Amino acid sequence: MNLFLVLLLVAAMIATVVALVRGVVIFLRTTEADLKGEGPSTPSLRSNKMMQQRILWQAVAIGIIMVMLLFASAKG
């Protein structure tokens, strides 16, 4: 069970990093024309979506850590 949680935690951490990098890359590709347009641009919406995904994956990773700590305290 502990190995499964560790692997799940590593997967959540990798997903967090991937979402962060993708969000930053999309943000850096935003052009001046996108910024001066009417309403939110497509790149800014995609960047925002990736940052929301990053927060989700961080919450999942924190939840897994909490479960691991709960199991560790129950054993000790």
Oligomer: single chain
| Terminus-to-terminus distance | 16 Å
Portion in beta strands? under 5%
Q: Helical content, roughly?
A: over 70%
Overview of this protein structure:
There is one protein chain. The protein is mostly helical. The protein is built from 3 helices and no strands. The protein has helices at residues 2-28, 32-36, 42-75. Helix 1 (2-28) packs antiparallel against helix 3. The protein is rod-shaped, with a radius of gyration of 17 Å.
List the main descriptive attributes of the protein structure presented here:
76 residues, mainly alpha, 3 helices, 87% helix, 0% strand
Would you kindly provide a brief summary of this structure?
By secondary structure, the chain is mainly α. The chain is built from three helices and no strands.
Give the topology:
Blueprint: H1 2-28, H2 32-36, H3 42-75
Helix pairs in contact: 1-3
